[in-house]
Design brief:
five-stranded mixed β-sheet; single chain; 24 helices; 5 domains; binds 2-(butylsulfanyl)adenosine; alpha+beta; 36% helix; seven-stranded antiparallel β-sheet; Helix Hairpins; D-amino Acid Aminotransferase, Chain A, domain 1; OB fold (Dihydrolipoamide Acetyltransferase, E2P)
Length: 680
């Protein structure tokens, strides 16, 4: 913005719009991974990558506070999507911990602590950071009456029966106050984890990525005898609610009370009277992490004295009196046998490394993506190389580069294959792009990954319809696209190799169930470019059905809150294709739900028929979504950006660039109260 005396000239700022979109994308991405981590126990990215996303969001929101929304993951404790357990309100919120990644981060945390307390004399307690899942145990008159997961921090899941089946958690405590809530970590010892995965493999059941997921997966089951069979461990590390506060005034006393009463407390916990000593312990625990019988992913440093903790207080997510020092990612070397290429549903051809299996960062790695041709060149890797594999905590491994001194003399640089490994049609890399593609829409690899995506958990969620099944169906000619899924019969399934009666029934009922999924899931399942859950929800809540979306004008889509021109264009392109139109018709005919959430009957008047509103900032009594509903119910439109066609801007607290732009364009600005008067 240029400022000329008291006048402001608005200079349209495209980058800022991109930043807002980028922040939204980051948020959506973080929530998506939170849900996988907390809801499904099947993360897709490493903790290190998650931390990076999170740090980027924090930094951007600091720079652009006008784009902070109350539902941002930075403003609340992690949430999970859905649960089949009863909800439990925590007596005291279960917060998370702020992270430190270096000596420097740790020192600046300590400096903040010293500054607030006005004293250099602070005693710390240093604890291994257990890589399991946080739980809360409520003891009444010394008896265990409830066990719950953390959930979103204020509401967790009631897993009492399962908790009671863990042999290391006492059902009765000696000499404790009437009400005592204990927090701690349920974890799976490494030996138990390896034995469990061996059994799972034998039974062709789900193999867990690491001990933490295995612990979470073992606690969040319906049958507590399964939990009992999984050899879970527990360490108590924090006090929650306590009926008699006078019995403890420090963390050391808390740990003593836990120990005396019969709760397991980690033996590696030490006291430190300086941050240097605490850091020394971080290094020590890091050097011995692999000789411990359980996984740790860092070290937790806590202020000991409760009176000092009280002075330090909390942010919305973290206590200021504790911090988690996270270990850096780990590296190992192994042999790169080959570089192969896989083709995804959009035709994108991705090279990946086939590795000699190696145990790194808590699990065995035998494959790693190499992203594209340039990345293979940048990493300078060849088949036959000994390479460094890096894993930040878990899940997504990375090939860092070769150890060139070990390169075989006769090795040759790898060349991107000219033909698709699935259909043998040419793989072409368009000019200016990094990615090769297979352009054959009939390519079996593209079709099968597209169907797999359609059926996946984040889309139509058809349990039991995974990659192997789909290939089998394609091979047998049972299906050729996603609409065919709905005509599969039980008899056809029973004719297939290795299909038992029960699994055929389960699959048929999962397919049937998916017919009533909300429309946004179907939109996600189509894999329309750029359309994730957020955009899909914006579409399905603003239209009566899929046909109304397909027929909507481009400008109309662009103006929807939560969309934007790139997504709108992509939606239009998708529905413009006759083959997609045909697919929609077949799905509808098969009984798949195509109705959106917008009901004509929700219209209560036409008073805003020609008005467009933009909402910004935090409103005092209603959420922006509620105000948007009131506008739409009166025939108005809600748009995400200000233009000269905007009728009103409704601005709340922390309104940023939209407010400035509205002022510059002379758009009338209302606060919540004025808006409510307008509609009354
Ligand atoms: S104290 C308000 N102590 O780390 C502080 N947490 O990143 C509550 N964790 O949710 C946590 N070991 O699941 C604390 N010794 C320890 C811990 C620990 C592991 C986990 C816990 C927490 C997460 C925060």
């Amino acid at each position: 913005m240029l400022s000329l005396g008291r006048y402001c000239i608005w200079v349209p700022s495209q980058p800022e719009k991109n930043i807002e979109q980028h922040i939204k994308d980051l948020r959506e991405n973080i929530v998506f991974h939170n849900n996988l981590y907390y809801g499904d126990d099947t993360p897709q990215i490493s903790d290190g990558e998650y931390d990076e996303l999170y740090r980027e969001l924090v930094a951007l929101e600091e720079e652009y506070p006008e784009f902070i929304t109350p539902d941002s993951p930075t403003q609340k404790v992690n949430t999970f999507l859905q649960s089949s357990f009863s909800p439990v309100e925590h007596l005291v919120p279960m917060l998370s911990l702020d992270n430190a990644f270096s000596d420097e981060d740790l020192r600046s945390w300590r400096d903040r602590v010293v500054k607030v307390l006005g004293s250099e004399e602070v005693d710390f307690v240093v604890e291994p950071k257990m890589d399991g899942l946080a739980i809360s145990l409520v003891y009444e008159d010394g008896k265990l009456i409830r066990g719950a997961t953390r959930g979103d921090g204020s509401t967790g899941e009631d897993v009492t029966e399962n908790i009671k089946s863990i042999s290391t958690i006492p059902h009765v405590l000696k000499d404790v106050p009437d009400l005592m809530e204990v927090r701690g970590e349920v974890y799976m010892p490494i030996r138990a984890f390896e034995a469990l995965n061996d059994r799972q493999r034998e039974n062709e059941a789900k193999v867990f990525a690491n001990p933490r997921n295995a612990a979470a997966g073992s606690l969040r089951v319906k049958d507590s005898s399964i939990t009992a069979s999984r050899d879970l461990g527990f360490f108590a590390y924090q006090i929650g609610q306590l009926s008699d506060q006078s019995v403890i005034s420090s963390h050391n006393q808390t740990l003593e009370l836990f120990h005396r009463s019969g709760l397991p407390v980690n033996e590696k916990i030490i006291n430190a009277d300086s941050i240097d000593k605490a850091f020394e312990q971080c290094r020590h625990l890091e050097s011995m992490r692999h000789s411990l019988p359980y996984e740790i992913d860092g070290v937790v440093i806590k202020v000991d004295d409760f009176a000092l903790r009280e002075k330090l207080g909390f942010t919305s997510r973290f206590p200021r009196w504790a911090i988690a020092y996270k270990f850096p990612p780990e590296e190992k070397t192994t042999l790169l046998h080959d570089i192969k290429v896989s083709v995804g549903r959009t035709g994108r051809a991705t090279p990946f490394a086939v590795l000699e299996p190696v145990f790194v960062g808590g699990s065995t790695v035998s494959m790693a993506t190499l992203h594209n041709e340039d990345e293979v060149a940048r990493r300078n890797v060849r088949p036959g190389d000994t390479v460094i594999v890096r894993k930040a905590g878990d899940v997504i491994p990375e090939v860092v580069g070769p150890i060139e001194s070990l390169r075989p003399k006769d090795s040759k640089a790898w060349k991107f294959p000219k033909k698709c490994p699935s259909c043998s049609k040419p793989l072409i890399r368009p000019e200016g792009e990094a990615q090769h593609r297979c352009w054959n829409v009939k390519c079996p690899a593209r079709i099968s990954t597209g169907i797999e995506y359609f059926a996946s958990r984040g889309a139509m969620d058809i349990e039991g319809l995974g990659g192997k099944r789909i290939l089998q169906f394609l091979d047998q000619g049972l299906i050729s696209d996603v609409a065919d899924i709905y005509s599969i019969t039980k008899e056809q399934l029973l004719e297939l190799e290795k299909t038992k009666d029960k699994s055929a029934d389960n699959l048929i009922s999962a397919i049937e169930k998916s017919k009533s999924q909300p429309l946004w899931r179907l939109l996600v399942a189509f894999g329309i470019r750029h359309v994730g859950p957020q955009a899909a929800k914006a579409l399905s809540s603003n239209y009566e059905d899929i046909h109304a979306i397909a027929n909507a004008k481009l400008e109309e889509l662009e103006n929807l809150e939560g969309l934007g021109d790139v997504i709108a264009r992509s939606v239009k392109d998708f529905f413009a294709l006759d083959s997609n139109d045909d697919l929609v018709k077949r799905l509808e005919l098969a009984g798949v739900n195509v109705r959106g959430e917008k009901q004509e009957s929700s219209r209560i008047s036409n008073e805003f028929d020609s008005f467009t509103f933009v909402l910004t900032g935090t409103l005092p009594s209603y959420t922006r979504e509620q105000i948007a509903e009131m506008i739409v119910a009166r025939g108005g439109k809600v748009s995400s950006s200000i233009s000269k066609n905007t009728s009103y801007l409704i601005a709340g607290d922390k309104a940023g660039s939209k407010l400035t732009k509205a002022e510059a364009l002379d758009v009338e600005i209302l606060d919540e109260e004025q808006f409510l008067k307008l509609i009354n």
